Amino acid sequence: MTTSPPSVDINPAVGAMLKTARDWLLTEHALFQTLDLKPLLIGRNKATFSVFLPDDFCDARGKVHGALLTLIMDSIFGLAAFTALDELKPVATINLRSDYLGDIDPGGRVICAAECTELRGDIAHVAGQLSDAATNRPIATGAGAFIIGSRSPGRESRL
C-alpha cells in the first residue's frame, strides 16, 4: 500500500496517531481487513478512502446493506475529525445523518470522501459522501457531529 504522508499542516503527533490507526485497521481489525481500505488522501480536515464491498454484507435484494455504508461513513468521517486536531484527543460520534441516493452491488469499491467543515469548541462537524468508484455515481451523503475529548463510560463523561 502506498499513500502520501499526511499534509504538513497536521500536528506531527496527530499524524503519527493517524498512521498507527491506519496500520492497525489494515492489519488487525477483521472487518476493515475484509473491506480492504485504501487511503487516497489524508490531509488537514480531510480523509478519502477506497473501500471494497464484500458479498457478506448484502440485504435481501442482493444489494450492499445500508448499515455497512453507514459504518464506512462513520469511520472515515471520524478519521477526518482527527485530522482537524492539533493534539491527540479521543473522538466519538455524537450523531450521523445518512441520506441514501441509490443502491450498489457488492464486489466493487466505493470512495468515501470526508471533510471536517468546522471545529467549534469540543465538537467537530464533518460532511462527505460515498460514490461508486467505477462510475463516480453518488451512493450516499452524510453529515455528523463528533465530540472531541470524550471519555470512556467508566470515567467522568462530558455528555
Can you give a write-up of this model?
There is one protein chain. With 159 residues, the chain is α+β, with helices and mostly antiparallel strands. The protein is built from 3 helices and 6 strands. Strands 1-2-4-5-6-3 form a 6-stranded antiparallel beta sheet, covered by helices on one side. A hairpin with a 2-residue loop joins strand 4 and strand 5. The N terminus is likely disordered.
The best one-word shape is globular
Rounded radius of gyration (Å): 15 Å
What class would the helix/strand composition place it in? alpha+beta
Q: Determine the fraction of residues in helical runs and give it as a percent range.
A: 25-40%
Unreliable sequence segments: 1-8
Total strands: 6
Average pLDDT confidence is: 85
List its traits:
alpha+beta, 159 residues, 6-stranded antiparallel sheet
Concise summary:
It is built from 3 helices and 6 strands; from the N terminus they run ααββαββββ.
Secondary structure topology:
Elements: H1 12-27, H2 30-35, E1 38-43, E2 46-52, H3 66-83, E3 91-100, E4 109-120, E5 123-132, E6 138-148
Antiparallel strand pairs: 1-2, 2-4, 3-6, 4-5, 5-6
